[in-house]
Design brief:
This protein has 200 residues and is mainly alpha-helical. The chain has 2 domains: 93 residues, Rna Polymerase Sigma Factor, Chain: A (Orthogonal Bundle), CATH 1.10.1740.10; 70 residues, Orthogonal Bundle (Arc Repressor Mutant, subunit A). It has 9 helices and no strands. Helix 2 runs antiparallel to helix 3 and helix 8 crosses helix 9. The protein is globular. The C terminus is likely disordered.
Length: 200
């Protein structure tokens, strides 16, 4: 079978009993699902768990995929829900790790290169700051700014109106900037109250 087959065809073949079709879907989409989970959860082990949970859900619910949205949109929704499940479990558990342990905060990505030290530090700052903002803002920023999904697809993935997506992205960027210690300019007032004497 061709690795270039469309997702929807691979789902149909998997449902017809072709296990290789599912393996291709996993190979094709697992890096992106893992990256979303890592930025949502901030922990490589939890991100791997969420990725595995997402694909197990695909196995269980593949028959429910109707093709009304793209498979990637459907899968993103499942991945986001898997992350939310882990976040809920995390809230119920006592804090067993030191939150200031820098070794656990960001996964090692390879040897450092001196010329890119500032860029790497900035990336670490963003990753840490993402964990400090509310998850409803975090997920839209990950989908929009990291995964580069259009607003319409994010709205379908999260099953919210596109206006909600735009609002959360704006608020999320403000929250992220504050979490990184950056100054956020005050919002311009949309209208100034008029005095009772009719002054402008």
């Amino acid at each position: 079978m061709s690795d270039a087959a469309p997702d929807e065809e691979l789902v149909r073949r998997y449902l017809a009993g072709d296990a290789q079709a599912f393996a291709i879907l996993v190979d094709r989409h697992s890096p992106r699902v893992y990256n979303v989970a890592l930025r949502m959860l901030g922990d490589p082990d939890e991100a791997r768990d969420a990725t595995q949970d997402a694909f197990l859900t695909v196995v269980r619910k593949a028959k429910q995929f109707r093709g009304e949205a793209a498979f990637s949109t459907w899968l993103h929704r499942i991945a986001v829900n898997a992350c939310y499940d882990i976040l809920r479990k995390r809230r119920r558990q006592p804090l067993l790790r030191r939150v200031d342990d820098e070794a656990d905060a960001i996964p090692e990505t390879g040897p450092s290169v001196a010329d890119h030290a500032d860029e790497a530090a900035g990336s670490i700052d963003v990753s840490r700051a993402l964990q400090a903002i509310p998850h409803e803002y975090r997920i839209v920023l990950v989908l929009a700014d990291v995964q580069d999904l259009p607003y319409e697809e994010i709205a379908r993935t999260l099953d919210v109106p596109i206006g909600t997506v735009k609002s959360r992205i704006h608020r999320g960027r403000v929250a992220l900037a504050r979490a990184m210690g950056l100054e956020v300019p005050p919002r311009e007032p949309t209208s100034l109250p008029r005095s009772s004497e009719g002054e402008p």
